[in-house]
Design goal:
The chain is of the alpha/beta class. It has helices at about 15-25, 60-70, 130-135, 150-160, 180-190, 235-240, 275-295, 300-310, 320-330, 335-344, and strands at about 1-10, 30-35, 75-80, 80-85, 90-95, 100-110, 110-115, 130, 145, 165-170, 190-195, 200-205, 210-215, 220, 225, 230-235, 265. The protein has ten helices and 17 strands. Strand 12 (about 200-205) and strand 13 (about 210-215) form a beta hairpin. The longest helix has 19 residues, at about 275-295. It is elongated and about 85 Å long. GO terms for molecular function: oxidoreductase activity. Pfam families: Pyr_redox_2 (PF07992). This is NAD(P)/FAD-dependent oxidoreductase. Keywords: Flavoprotein, Oxidoreductase.
Length: about 350
């Protein structure tokens, strides 16, 4: 199946979904191609999203957003984009498993994956966490670990002292790779550094972590903690299109998500910045508006209008018939028959 759109968003996390929401509501035929999964889908509870209660899981949050963009008129494909190329006419071709898309603009919302340490491990979301800003609040006055050996590990451990007085760093047999200055800071803070590898994990009846046993026979109780082993950014499509990357491996973008390649934007966790749902949604909104500025038909300059031989009422509105009908249905406007009568 081959389709044409003005905007195609690759990736269905909060950033990509917000971009699609804006471009669709601003009158641009939009598609989303989403392979599924992602960091947001792993959330047992939703934190730090104003107006969304914590009993909403990540999958519920995302499914509601998918239904919203479809109601506004976006097309949604559950598929994996394997290749991206610019065509001679300036548009782009995206090849997925069951659909080929030609599009005027591409939005890369492909995210990243946290590097997971080797097992044994607590259950993700029930004792094993990756986002300090999301989950530190859950561990006020609770025993906490931070797993890893980098400077980031040491700093997260020290930051957690703002929330609890029981913080351990679990090296798991690795040597610390943090700097001498960081070592001095760790030694000055009330943090225990545990060298020994993990032997096993104890979970409670509710599935939450209760304790970790180490190979030296010691046992320490924890409510939860953070694994800090870095990230793998999903930049394959960006590299195929020639987008510049940062030294850290993210897609380099301007303030509104524009990449170094014309008509290619990137939003969310695949770009530099805080990995937070509200931040990602803000990036998606800014990119969606920026795309609208680039793609909208009106206003036209006098020179453009003269080159077309003038404008008439038949040339407006610029929104496609498909989106026009969807908007009328969504907002309770005239249906197809009433619209046809009005046009006559």
């Amino acid at each position: 199946m081959s389709e044409h759109y003005q905007v195609t968003v690759v990736g269905g996390g909060p950033a990509g979904l917000t971009t699609a929401l804006y471009t669709t509501r601003l009158g641009h035929d939009t598609a989303m191609i989403n392979r599924g999964g992602g960091r947001a889908a792993m959330m047992k509870d939703t934190h730090n999203v104003i107006g969304v209660t914590e009993d909403v899981s990540g999958n519920e949050f995302l499914q509601t957003a998918i239904e919203q963009i479809q109601e506004y008129g976006a097309d949604y494909y559950r598929d994996f984009v394997q290749s991206a190329e610019r065509l001679d006419d300036g548009r782009f071709r995206l090849e997925a498993g069951d659909v080929t898309v030609e599009t005027d603009a591409v939005v890369l919302a492909t995210g990243f994956s946290d590097k997971r340490p080797d097992p044994p491990l607590p259950r993700t979301g029930a004792g094993l966490h990756y986002c300090l800003h999301c989950d530190a609040y859950m561990f006020v006055d609770e025993p906490v670990y931070v797993m890893g050996h980098s400077d980031s590990v040491a700093y997260v451990a020290m930051i957690m002292l703002n929330f609890t007085d029981e913080v351990d760093i679990l090296l798991r047999g690795d040597e610390p790779t943090w700097s001498a200055e960081t070592q001095a800071m760790v030694e000055a803070h009330p943090i225990d550094v545990i060298d020994t590898e993990i032997e096993s994990v104890e979970n409670g009846a509710d599935g939450w972590l209760e304790a970790i046993e180490f190979e030296d026979g010691t046992r320490r109780e924890y409510r939860g903690g953070f694994a800090m082993y870095g990230s793998e950014f999903n930049t394959e499509l960006a590299e195929q299109l020639g987008c510049d990357l940062t030294d850290s491996g993210e897609i380099e973008v301007g303030d509104h998500g524009k990449t170094s390649v014309e008509n290619v934007w990137a939003v969310g966790d695949v770009t530099p910045g805080h990995n937070q749902i509200p931040v990602a949604m803000g990036q998606g909104a800014k990119a969606g508006i920026d795309i609208h500025y680039d793609l909208r038909t009106f206003p036209m300059s006098v020179e453009e209008i003269e080159a077309r031989g003038g404008l008439s009422k038949d040339d407006v509105p610029a929104i496609s018939d498909r989106l026009r009908e969807r908007a009328a249905a969504h907002e309770g406007g005239p249906g197809e028959e009433e619209q046809a009568a009005a046009d006559d």
